[in-house]
Amino acid sequence: AQSVTQPDIHITVSEGASLELRCNYSYGATPYLFWYVQSPGQGLQLLLKYFSGDTLVQGIKGFEAEFKRSQSSFNLRKPSVHWSDAAEYFCAVGFHNNAGNMLTFGGGTRLMVKP
Amino acid sequence: DVKVTQSSRYLVKRTGEKVFLECVQDMDHENMFWYRQDPGLGLRLIYFSYDVKMKEKGDIPEGYSVSREKKERFSLILESASTNQTSMYLCASSRTGNGNSPLHFGNGTRLTVT
C-alpha cells in the first residue's frame, strides 16, 4: 500500500532564509507526486506535481521540488521564504485503484516564518 | 481555473441534527471527494464518488453518508450529528486518471456540533 511521511510536523524559518520541507513516499510503481499548500482557514492549493522526466520541477510561488527515486523522496524547497509562505504544506502520492484516481496525503508540515 | 464551491464556510449545529454539507464543481470532473481535517490527524477520506450515483467508502465513513445525483454536486450528510464530528470538512474534485490527476479543493466548511 502507498504511504507518505512528512517527518517534520513544525518548522520555523526566518524571513529571507531558505526552506526545505521533507517528504518520503512508499509506492510500488513509478509515483505521481504532488505538493499542496493550505493557508489558514482555506482549502488546499496545488503548488506543483511530478509525473516523469526532469526530476526537478518548478511550481507556483517560487517553490520547486526534487524527485529522488533512490531515496523515495520528494522534498520541497524555496530559496528565500516570505512571511506570506506561513502555512501548512502537504505532500501526496497519486495512485489508481478500482474506483479511480486517488491521492494519499502525508500528515502535513506547518511552516512558521519569523520576521 | 477549476472552482470547487462549498456552500458554507462555518456551520454550528446541535447534537442529533441532520446536517447537509454541499459541494459544487464547475469543471465537469468525474471524481469528487469528502475529507475531514483535524489537528494532528491530517486529511482523512470519508467518501468519494467516481460517477453520478456512485459512491465508495473512504477511511472513516461511519456516521456519514453521501449523495451524488448530478455530476457537479456532491453532498455529505451527517445523519445525526455528534460532537466528535466537529471538524473542518474539505470537498475536492478531479478528472478520471491513473493517479496523475490532481485534486482541486474547496475552501472548506468548519462545522461545530454543540
Low-confidence parts of chain A lasting 5 or more residues at pLDDT below 50?
A: none
At CATH level 2, the architecture of chain B is: Sandwich
Low-confidence runs of chain B: none
CATH class of chain B: Mainly Beta
Q: What percent strand of chain A?
A: over 45%
The total domain count of chain B is: 1
Mean pLDDT of chain B: 94
Q: Describe the global form of chain B.
A: globular
CATH topology of chain A: Immunoglobulin-like
Structure summary, number of beta strands of chain B: 12
Radius of gyration of chain A: 14 Å
In summary, what is this structure?
Chain A has 115 residues and is mainly β.
Overview of the structural elements:
The complex is a heterodimer of chains A (115) and B (114). With 115 residues, chain A is mostly beta strands. Chain A has one domain: Sandwich (Immunoglobulin-like), CATH 2.60.40. Helices cover 0% and strands 57% of the residues of chain A. Chain A contains no helices and twelve strands. Chain A has strands at 3-5, 10-14, 19-21, 24-26, 32-38, 44-50, 56-58, 64-68, 73-78, 87-97, 100-105, 109-114. In chain A, the strands form three sheets. In chain A, strands 2, 5, 6, 10, 11 and 12 form a six-stranded mixed β-sheet that branches. In chain A, strands 3-9-8-7 form a four-stranded antiparallel β-sheet, with no helix packed on it. In chain A, strand 8 and strand 9 (73-78) form a beta hairpin. Chain A is globular and about 45 Å long. The model of chain A has no long low-confidence stretch (mean pLDDT 93). Chain B is mostly beta strands and 114 residues long. Chain B has a single domain (4-113), classed as Immunoglobulin-like (Sandwich), CATH 2.60.40. Chain B is 0% helix and 52% strand. Chain B contains no helices and twelve strands. Chain B has strands at residues 4-6, 10-13, 19-21, 23-25, 31-38, 42-49, 56-57, 64-70, 73-78, 87-94, 104-105, 109-113. In chain B, the strands form three sheets. In chain B, strands 2, 5, 6, 7, 10, 11 and 12 form a seven-stranded mixed β-sheet that branches. In chain B, a hairpin with a 2-residue loop joins strand 8 and strand 9. The model of chain B has no long low-confidence stretch (mean pLDDT 94).
